Amino acid sequence: MAKQDYYALLGIQKGATDEEIKKAYRANVKKYHPDSNPGDAGAEAKFKEINEAYTVLSDADKRAKYDQFGHAGAEASFGGGGFGNFADFADIINEMNIFGTRRQRKRGPEPGASVEFILRISFEDALFGVEKDIEVNIKDTCEGCRGTGAKPGTHPENCRTCQGTGRQRQGVQTALGYMETTTTCRSCRGAGKVIKEVCISCAGVGKKAKPKKITVTVPKGIDNGQSIRFTGQGEAGEVGAPKGDLFVRVMVGPHSLFARKGYNLYMEHEISFVQAALGAEIQIPTPYGDENYKLPPATQPETTISMRGKGVPHVNRQGGQGDLIITFKLIVPRNITDNQKELLRQFAAEDGEIYDEGRKGFFGKRKK
Length: 368
Known about the structure:
There is one protein chain. The chain has about 375 residues and is an alpha+beta fold. It has four domains: about 5-95, DnaJ domain (Helix Hairpins, Orthogonal Bundle); about 110-150 and about 200-255, HSP40/DNAj peptide-binding domain, CATH 2.60.260.20; about 260-330, HSP40/DNAj peptide-binding domain; about 335-368, no CATH class. It contains nine helices and 17 strands. A hairpin with a 2-residue loop joins strand 12 and strand 13 (about 290-295).
């Protein structure tokens, strides 16, 4: 199979500078290094080709021969010994810290997974707070094997492939010599232990789903989509590891009258033409009961007022509370009597408007 062009391998142009070559090499090494692609033969082959390309292009003499004679010139230059610009290569090794026999962190027991439960409550429950009893199916430690996954009376044994470390070393021959990498053990998949006889109760998993009853105290003022966290109430971890957490996500139902934005509530309140024109004592509903309000004369449509402290309480904070914002909507009656029509005509006439019976409309005064 014909070799691929070295410049194309690194993803650079033929006239690239030394710095561009080094930068492209760094990026390709990170992408195709065996530690980043365990068990991927294609990535390993690509990694070798990348090293070969850099060995040639990082050395001025070898690059010149390659530019003139192609791969034949490059292969001839390899006989001279050495590995091209090794100082650059060593610099990259130190900077990236991914080659050789790196020390691997000792793998500890895996903590348990977190669990999410959706709790649906009413608008009023979110406003005033509530206690709810819920039941959640959570994977807990198997009582039969006590979380080991092995048949009662037996126990997991150290993996013979990795000697219980969960990691195995693998040699890679590159253009720059022999290098050794460490990958996840294929036999035990990194666990370091193997089970010969699995627990029948949990099928070797070490956990079983069990119903769990929990009382959730929903604080007043909680908003739609917020979560309440129960530390250590999630799934069981591996033996010796802590449990995960339980997150109760609260979903709040809508209200027929109020809409919430942050800690403020918004509503629309209908008023008649007479109330708007003359003013009136009206009652406005709030979440905390009706409130008397003195509507001033000549109140215009879409007028907005605010009732302080009649909104949503701040979560877990004493004294803080939002406002209730009210927008007045003018209601025009659909059905009126003949007497009411005549009174409206008289009102219009005194205001400088003339009602045309033929065209069924008011004409006359313009706004200044």
